[in-house]
Amino acid sequence: MKPVVEFDEVSKWYGNVIGVNKLTIRVPAGVTGLLGPNGAGKSTLLQLATGQLFPSQGTVTVLGQRVWGNTSLNRFIGLCPEQDAFYEWMTGWDFIHTCARLGGLNRIDAKDAAGRALESVGMTKNKDRAVRGYSKGMRQRTKLAQALVHDPEVLFLDEPMTGTDPVARRDLMDIIQRLGGEGKSVMVSSHVLHEVQSLTPNIILMNRGRLVAEGNIREIRELIDKHPHHIVLVCNEYRKLAARLVEWDDVEGVKVLARAQGLMVETRSPDAFYGRLPQLSLEAGTAIDEVYSDDDNLEAVFKYLVNK
Amino acid sequence: MTTAALRSAHDSSYLASLWTLFVLAVRQHLHGKRWMVMAALFVLPALLAVVIRATASDAPSIWLEFILIFMFIPQALLPLVALVYSSGIIQDEQEDQTLTYLLIRPIPRWSIYVVKLLAALVMTVILTAIFTTLTYIVIHVGADSAVTNLPSRCAKAVVIHSTAVVAYCCLFGLIGLMTKRALVVGIIYAAVVEGILANLPLSIRMVTVIYYTRIMAYRSMEFIADVPHKGLDIAAGAWKLDSKVDPQLSEHPSLALCVLILGVASMIFTTIAAVMCSRREFHVKTPEGS
Fold first, then answer.
1. pLDDT for position B235
2. Nearest CA in chain A to B92
3. B24: contact with A, CB 8 A cutoff
4. Cβ contact (<8 Å) for B24 and A99?
5. Minimal Cα distance from A190: which residue of B?
6. Longest dimension (CA), chain B
7. What is the reported pTM?
């Protein structure tokens, strides 16, 4: 399948500071999560993809077309920017209607589109209030509505859930999933991993302007095995258990967690390790009360990959 | 749909986008307090005229007209209003972080600048026209004025001031793209170049807007004060125009040439700024520098 967004050896420098470093990615249709800590280069990537920034090196294409200076492409692209900025004196409806008109819709179409966009983000009942009086959640919904108003094919959402309450967050996630279901290509940036995890299995991990990993969460999980796993074992006789574990070849380290009455074990062979644990637990004096690992969720994947 | 029909639809939607942008820019000007501050400043010449007429009833109205309308307004107010309205055409949106909403629309960057400049021109020309007329009314209505054909003089003054403010706006719009300290640079420019150089009887004054403004005013109307035994050409003295030796001012440009020079300069400034806009990135800061 032809990628919707393509970065080919793209670098972006701000003077001596690197925003994005030799980034090559191909984003397929559907919902894609863009993950990385603050300063990872996520916003730079999205600004490059929406033609706001010019790549210092390499090429950026969206829907097969170069982005920079190609303003007609903006008819097919929607961006929900990260910054919490509006024409504060406008009402929500006025703002969305103006964005629709700026997007080239005629008066009648713009009116219909504004109504639809506000409806789709659940802002119809608040549309006649001034934006300056909106809550954070309402502002995020309104930003999303302006990105949707011209019915774009590709949506770039920069930290759309930031600062929202749990209800608004859930609603926004539902909206994004619905958009994906409607056939839109959506690229969502976030530094909160569980948000993206519940939105899509397709992720791009970035750190310090570089691509750390990209693809399906499962594929990325495979990368984990190249890195040590940390497994926590809670056991009353944790010191005795530690003595047994250090004898195992695949255990690379054992850290005593005295306060938690447990151990943090580092291993590069988690499957083999987990396989031997039941027997160890059965042996007298080393009954293990609890076993858990952060590696079971995306947070652990992220930690491993960005810190490698 | 035929190719011609598609092109027509595209053109009309493009024009609709530009019109929306223009309306948005004008609404931004009207929603701020800027126009009220500017109006308060612009009303100063009229207030001064009221005070002078109340305290010195024998002051010739031609003197008042010359000092307030042809010295104070073009020297102090026009550069200021132009600077305030045009130096932040893009910068203000960038600082407010709303520029993104314009950059992600199917509107070329150069036309964003040009349309927003047009909105600034409309605002400044309207302010200039209203308050120049108001000052004329306050100076001359009810006064025992020797000045004849007031409506014509007022109209000429409005046109001359509007031409000047357009040139100033185009210049300060360009400066606003070249430096983040456009207000400071603009004030220094207005004080040094338009304030000092323009008053030197040297060719250097030909690089100033106010020089052409003065020549246009001098060539299109008279500023002769009634003094005992002879008329005094107050403009020639104040503007260092050697009308005694050269009554036709043959060393100075004609009225048409002045308009042409200011018009061409305005277009050059606008073109340079539009090209800069189309090639430049505008960094809108993001909350965490992410």
1. 83
2. A87
3. yes
4. no
5. B290
6. 80
7. 0.84
- Say yes or no: A108 contacts chain B, CB-CB below 8 A: no
Query: What would the pLDDT profile of B162-206 be if each residue is shown by its tens digit?
Result: 999 999 999 999 999 999 999 999 999 999 999 898 888 788 888
CA distances from B34 to B29, B75, B82, B120, B279 (A): 7, 20, 12, 12, 30
Answer whether A146 sits within 8 Å of B101, measured CB to CB. yes
The full 3-state SS of A243-291, as one line of letters, equals HHHCCCCCEEEEEEECCCCEEEEEECCHHHHHHHHHHHHHCCCCCEEEE
- Whether A242 and A254 have beta carbons less than 8 Å apart is answered as yes
Q: How many independent structural domains does chain A possess?
A: 2
CB-based burial of residue B253 (10 Å sphere; 0-12 exposed, 13-18 middle, 19+ buried)? Answer: middle
* Amino acid (1-letter code) at residue B161: H
User: Over chain A, what is the mean pLDDT?
Assistant: 87
CA distances from B268 to A75, A104, B44, B185 (A): 31, 29, 33, 19
- Position B79 scores a pLDDT of 96
Cα-flanking dihedrals φ and ψ of residue B178, to 5°? -90, -25
Q: How many residues does this entry show for chain B? A: 290
Specify the DSSP element, H or E, that contains B206.
none
Q: Which two tokens stand for residue A307?
A: 């810190």
For the record, the structure tokens of A260 come out as 């938690």
More confident residue, A93 or A243: A93
Rg of chain A over all Cα atoms, to the nearest angstrom = 24
Question: Last residue of a domain, which of A171, A199, A216?
Answer: A216
Nearest-Cα distance to chain B for A291, in Å, is 36
User: What pairing do the DSSP bridges indicate for beta strands A31-35 and A185-190?
Assistant: parallel
Q: Which domain holds residue A231?
A: 225-307
CB B73 within 8 A of CB B132: yes
The closest of B268, B275, B277, B271 to B91, measured between CA atoms, is B277
> Are the Cβ atoms of B28 and A39 closer than 8 angstroms?
no
Shared-domain flag, residues A90 and A121: yes
pLDDT tens digits for range A58-78: 999 999 999 999 999 999 999
Give burial (CB, 10 Å; 0-12/13-18/19+) of B111.
Answer: middle
Residues A267, A210 share a domain = no
Contact B96 A85 (CB under 8 A): yes
pLDDT band at B54, cuts 50/70/90?
confident
ipTM > 0.90 for the complex: no
Distant-in-sequence, close-in-space partners of A303: CB < 8 Å, separation ≥ 6: A294
Q: What Å distances lie between residue B154 and A282, B75, B132, B214, CA to CA?
A: 104, 18, 8, 15
Sign, Cα dihedral of A97, A101, A106, A109: negative
Query: A199 and A137 share a domain?
Result: yes
Looking up residue A159, the CATH number of its domain turns out to be 3.40.50.300
B33 contact A CB<8A: no
**Nearest-by-Cβ selection for B102 from A72, A102, A105:** A102
Residues in chain A: 308
Q: Is A140 on the interface with B (CB under 8 A)?
A: no
